[in-house]
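User: Can you predict the 3D structure of F-box/LRR-repeat protein 15? Sequence below.
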Amino acid sequence: MSSDDAVKRARYARRRLAGEGSSSSASSRRKRTKFHHNFRDVEEDRFDSSCDVEGEGEWDESEVAKVEDQGVKMDLTDDLLHMVFSFLDPPNLCKAARVCKQWRTASAHEDFWRTLNFENHYISGEEFEDMCRRYPRATAVSISGSTIFLLVMKAISSLRNLEVLTLGKGHISDGFFHALEDCSMLKRLSINDATLGSGIQEISITHYRMCHLQITKCRVMRIAVRCPQLETMSLKRSNVAQAVLNCPLLHELDLGSCHKLPDSAIRSAATSCPQLVSLDVSNCSCVSDETLREVSFSCANLSFLDASYCPNISLESVRLPMLTVLKLHSCEGITSASMAAISQSSLLEVLELDNCSLLTSVSLDLPLLQNIRLVHCRKLADLDLRTVMLSKMLMSNCPALHRINITSNSLQKLTIPKQDSLTTLALQCQSLQEVDLSECESLTNSVCDVFSDGGGCPMLKLLTLENCENLTSIRFVSTSLVSLSLGGCRAITNLDLTCPKLENVILDGCDHLERASFSPVGLRSLNLGICPKLNMLSLEAPFMVSLELKGCGVLSEAFVNCPLLTSLDASFCSQLTDDCLSATTASCPLIESLILMSCPSIGSDGLYSLSSLPNLTVLDLSYTFLVDLQPVFESCSQLELQACKYLSDTSLEPLYKGGALPALQELDLSYGTLCQSAIDELLVCCTNLRRVSLNGSHDNAMESNQESTCLLQNLNCVGCPNIRKVEIPSRAHCSNLLFLNLSLSGNLKEVNVTCLNLCFLNLSNCSSLEILRLDCPRLTSLFLQSCSIDGEAVEAAISKCNMLETLDVRFCQKISSTSVARFRTACSSLKRIFSNSSN
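Assistant: Sure. Here are the predicted structure tokens for F-box/LRR-repeat protein 15:
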């Protein structure tokens, strides 16, 4: 066999394995009747040996045989193949059957077809009879549709091992129920959405081995069931009017939504089953207390009762001592008087009272109660639960609730949001860890006693009191609290937290907070800049590394003891004094970044205290009235002095004459009044400077002529209205300069830059620019947006920029489209030119 033939046959085999084979003739396709799981594909007496393979033409029968013998056959024994196929579902078994004869035979083994599921799929009587003949040991059958009666009768007569029968969506005559006794192995019968008998006569179901019977959404007038082994039965949503049961072992009965079933019929059916454990009569509006009382006498082991949407029951005279689950949703007769009867169910574990509109108070002492629901109880005002096993509680939309008292040793999470009238809360919950009382607008300050040590919640970790607008003074003393959220509590003016494990606190929206004490807390960061009225702060946080007081404009007293603090932002703290700053630097010696922008009360005494900060690297004194900077010339690598208009030229002399701050790397002198000579001296002498900002400078020129090597990398001179000329010659030795920004300098006319490594130059909105000389071989980006320079000057400037890639000349009125075309000739490295389409 040639290699090409082997490849063709292998490709053909893979297509057969993936189930992609298709019949080559229309007659063959017509013979294949499709139904659930493609059973006919498995049944075909002759393996379909005709298939079109893309690009290979049609193969004859002999070639297929060769493929089966040579290309596909695997060295798998029948036993091994049987074990492998046992993991496949019916659709994949059908696909496997298309591979070869061995696989087809193996996949058709009756062990894999114990369940014949034709639900929602059409199958003719002949096909179904053939399936029953092929798989006589099938134990489960599902059938639906108009031919349901014919098919199920064939199943009963052919399948002697049938254990599970599922029927639906059709008409089932009386004959089926008479023949049902012949199906001796049947254990489960399910009928859904079907018409039984004529719809008006009584249907009798008799079987001596059946354990489970489910008749749902069926149309039948009367039904009689005599099944001595029956354990569970459901008539849910059927329109039955009479049900007679003779099922002594029945322990689960579901009559939910049987609207036509009268109270007497429900009573007769339930009381005839003395072993009943579970009873569902939900949506049976005629059920009465008398029926439940009779059931309690006859069914001593009843543990589950669902009587939801039964408006006539009150339970006042009903005793259900063995009950563990009770559901009473939307029962209008349930009132506070019903609680006495419920309290008699000492084994109760689950209680649901949603939408009980007349319920005004709940007082229960149930030692085993684990789960309770109270949702949309509009008149509920008082809740008292003494349930040591309570572990889950759902309560919401009870607008009249004003008092809650809960005792539990198992409750870990309590969520009671949006209880507008709640004023009194008492908890004795030893395991409670999480509480959410969001939007309980009537809560008072007394709630703090509940969640402090000794208040009954010793393990509380997370407390949410968001939007509790009636809280004014908060004081928590807790050794367990980890997270506290007070967002939106706008009336709080005083906050006192003694919570050594507290790691997270949310104060967003606490606009009126005036006094705050955190002593001690386990916080690692804190933002109080959202509290604009804060005037006194006491903070003791041994693990805190970041503190933000930005915007606390009236803060005048601050005691901060954070030995690990590295970042402090006190911007706009206009009343912060030297004494506060000195005390803070003494107790926080590891501060690295200190922002004192717009702190006009800080003077020399406060700045002298910075000497105790050996790690200080960032200092911002912008917008202050400082005149003497001598106190700060100790240790700092970044200094910001924006808009310090009272600084004279001599104020910075220690930097470039006295050798102060030798490690200074970043300096911001924006909007200052320093003269050109002072700036030149600074740039020359401070050789470690890497970033300098002179935005808003009032100099007439900027020239760097000093023959001294510096490390300057970034120079910003944005919006300097009086600068007319910028010159950086080669002798300035600015070989490290990478970024130069001169944008928005409206009077700048001439720029002459010779810089070996400059890669970014921004001259946008320099509307007076006329002369541009560049000798920057590594410049990659040049921005000239909205400049008055002409095309010839730009062309000459970029001719020596051999690595220029981006050029922006938008809104340059003197540059035409012809000039733009010449730019690419002058600088071959250009990749992007931004210009107006009109140019």
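Residues 680 and 704 are 7 Å apart (CA to CA). The radius of gyration is 44 Å.
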